[in-house]
Amino acid sequence: MSKEELFKKLSEAVIASDSQAVVDAAKQVIEKGIDPVEAIEKGLSKGAIAVGEKFDKMEIFLTGLMMAADAMKAGMDILLPHISKEKIVRKGTVVSGTVKGDIHDIGKNILVALFQANGFDVYDLGTDVSTSKFIEEAEKVNADIITLSALMSSTIGGQKDVIDYLKETGKRKNFIVMVGGGPTTREWVEEIGADGWAETATEAIKLASELIEKKK
Amino acid sequence: MVTFLNMMERAVTGKPCSERDYDLKIFSAKVVELVKEYDITFDPSLSVPSDDSLADDVFKAGIDLYREVGTYCKDTERIIKFTESEIKAGLKNAPSRAIFGEELDAKEMVPRKPEDRTPPWCFIGAAGAPVSSEEILLSLMQSYGAIPLADSITTPALTSVGGVRIRPRSPLEIYGAIRNAVLAREALRRAGRPGLSIMNALATAESAPSLIAALHPQYGLRPSDGYLLAAMAELKTDFDRLNKACALLSLGGRIVGESGPVYGGYCGGPEGTAITSVAYHLMGILVYQATCHLVFPIHLKYRCNTTPELLWVISAYGQAISRNTHLLSMNLNYTAAGPCTEMCLYEIAARAISAVASGLSIEAVGVAKAAHEDYLTPIEPRFAAEVAHATAGMKRENADEIVKHLVSLYIDKIPDPPLGMKYQECFDVKTGNPSSKCLEIYSKVKKELEDLGLPIESS
Lengths: 216, 459
Fold this sequence. Notes:
heterodimer; A: alpha/beta; Methyltransferase, Methionine Synthase (B12-binding Domains), Chain A, domain 1; 2 domains; 5-stranded parallel β-sheet; 9 helices; 5 strands; 10% strand; B: alpha/beta; TIM Barrel; 8-stranded parallel β-sheet; 4-stranded mixed β-sheet; globular
């Protein structure tokens, strides 16, 4: 199989959410001595971008998106150990979770899957996450972005808590803070001083890339 | 018959399973399989299908789905399952009539069939949308109480008490829940309908302690009010919700099983969302012992249910349930557009016609996705009830024609809908009277519906 054919196979396997096919193709990349960076860019990432576009057009749904993200990760797990540290280009590191008191996770799961599929390192803290846990984890993994989900009008105050905590401890500038979820609005973002908000997960990924670029 | 205690035993002894495996490998996989097995296909050219066999297949697939996947309990990480005969017995024994409210305002909710002339139950108000002050809550509630077609009331949710933002599972939430109940009852007294049922007075009570605290009789709520009890997407529950069910059932409170299957989420497309909507009725009966049901399929991306796919889902599951059961079932509407816009009223009409012609009753309405503080007025629920009553008895084919026309008027604006105006910008908060602009839009859209063949009597 030629290099181009292998890249195509990687891309198609991600789109098909076929983790085993991704692993098989990634192993062949290593066995054939093909540049793993090129395999990520022209194979896995290409597939992931296509998956994101399909999800945005509702041609695939959440389950397909999450399984495609799993497939992408399976391929990365094979390829990354063969890339020298200085060559590894990740788009950013994200700590993601639903705020204290809120146990809804679908919106957060979509965001996490899209971040993974778009080449971000994501640390998913789950739901009902305490303020201090967000910050401890963000410091531990040297995160670029903290994303705070909330689905209830009674729980969005948890987003403000994280920002207040960062401000009080002098750490506000260390992280980009993005918020989202049903009851959040642009006005709310301005009120609490978050860095970004998006109505959909796809828009959030685009905005995250822009905010990281701006911060550099 | 499966008792609440039987169900709880299964919640602590059922098959263990991770939540992720339940979502992806059990629930989602079974939905895909059943859509294929029953050959259920979304037809984009129809908003209100008239095919009885489609409705019956959606019903059968919903039964199979629930029998196979049950309900996932997040706290025990176990699956609560029911046999086919338990599901059938649950359907047979579920209430076919229920009286809500008291004295002169008591009303009986009855089941409906597709194209039924029986007027739909109109659960009218804010659908839990947030409001910024107690003054606005009182004013809105008083106006809802004055809507003659209102059979029960859905309140707004307070976001703060005494200027302090409410936090979940805190004394602030308990305070907010109690305040919500007291104000809602007081507003209905002022409207001259003190016995009217408040079905979600506890919209502010996300946690069980808040609900239980606000149930004390001195705050004005009654067993006959009706209490929304939500499932979690998809087909999941937790101890907090089960604690609420236990407390409500012990007091003889009428539970309204609430659920919002997500189109584009684990349900997949329109077909899977319709099947899951049926399964939620079964969960309501068997897990929450619900008296009636409120299902609101919702678009994952646009957070409304007025797109063509969602209108098809509402029609398909509505016909499935109303043709095959005697369940008391309502559908809740979320619009993309905000108050005092033509688009909002077009969306409301499209959903109300689809639901009512398909045999459902209605809750109206979460305006502007119920996400923006104070973006709601009494005009929208009043209009929804008027359209719903005018639709009773309409043939599904006729409903489909009108709905398709309405959808064509707003579909392009769904991704970026107009937000409209706040209550205090288009109504006089003190008198509850609308601005002339509001009335003008309402009259214009009503006239357009009349021209389309749906004469609407002013209420």
